[in-house]
Amino acid sequence: MTATEAMSSDRNDVAHLAGDIERLEMIFEGWEDTPRGAVKAYGLAIEALNGEAIRRLVAALKREPAALAAMKTAVSDEVVYAVLRRHGIIKPSLTERVEAALESIRPMLASHGGDVELVSISPPSIEVKFTGSCDGCPASQLTFHAGVKKAVEDACPEITEILQVKGTGATTEGGESVRFVSPFALGSGGSWQPAVKLQDIPERGVKAIVLDGEKILLSRRGSIVTCFQNSCAHLGLALDDGEVVNGIITCPYHGFQYDLASGECLTAPAVQLQPHSVRVIGNRVEVRLQS
């Protein structure tokens, strides 16, 4: 028997065993409560015994470097991995945890006709993209920060950079593809004005400029850009010299803090920064000033 034939035979054996378990479970479901409960308890007892035996075996193997290396190789087998995961002997992979986090918010996205897909994982960063009606919707950026980003960061604290990729599905009047458009652009009027190059805004930082006589503050995470009036809602003082930590800017004068994703004031929730529409086309950032 060749190696390929052996692997195929193993897969068939696993499928056969899984089928046997499913068929037995269907039979048990037709039983009355007492015998069904007894069978379930018996199965759990056997599973607990097997789990304890496997845990002791793994603990012994970990003490031998060569055996530990062989065990790590064995875990790549899908059946071995599934059994060890079931008994809690190995932790879920980063991919599993990210996918579980995304799955937790899919019902909300589905209610709006959209979805989110995991594009890539390169710790400490991942890339995701919206699909369906969420792709290109201006409100998708709020969904990204309040939903996707929070879900992933809560489940996977080792992931510190979550980027949204793919275009918004929108184009400019001249047919150029728009990489990003802020939610504040929805329903706003006025013309788009060139502001800066994307790379001119420090990653996870801010850049202050004067556009058409207005002092504005731009911030960036990847290709996601926000734009607000460079004026603290407290006394109207400029914010650009303030410290930025984890997307929060602190006014250098009186300590008021603002979320740069939404403009929300964390110090006095009744106020917020005045937003301006912003979009990214290639590496060009354009702003549409709000009246």
Silhouette: elongated
Helix content class: 25-40%
The fourth-level CATH homologous superfamily of the largest domain is Rieske [2Fe-2S] iron-sulphur domain
Number of strands: 13
CATH architecture annotation name of the largest domain: 3-layer Sandwich
Looking across the biggest beta sheet, what order are the strands in?
Answer: 4-12-13-5
Sketch the major β-sheet: 4 strands, antiparallel
What oligomeric state do these chains adopt? Answer: single chain
The computed structural class is alpha+beta
- Tally the structural domains: 3
How far is the first residue's CA from the last residue's CA?
A: 77 Å
What is the overall pLDDT average? 80
Structural description of this entry:
- The chain has 3 domains: 3-86, no CATH class; 94-164, GMP Synthetase, Chain A, domain 3; 180-288, Rieske [2Fe-2S] iron-sulphur domain (Rieske Iron-sulfur Protein, 3-layer Sandwich), CATH 2.102.10.10.
- The protein has helices at 3-29, 33-61, 65-74, 78-86, 94-110, 140-155, and strands at residues 114-122, 125-132, 161-164, 180-181, 193-197, 206-211, 214-221, 224-229, 244-245, 248-250, 257-259, 277-281, 284-288.
- It has a 4-stranded antiparallel sheet with strand order 4-12-13-5, with no helix packed on it. Strands 1-2-3 form a 3-stranded mixed sheet.
- Helix 5 (94-110) packs antiparallel against helix 6 (140-155).
- A hairpin with a 2-residue loop joins strand 1 and strand 2 (125-132).
- The protein has 291 residues and is an alpha+beta fold.
- Mean pLDDT is 80; it is low at 1-8.
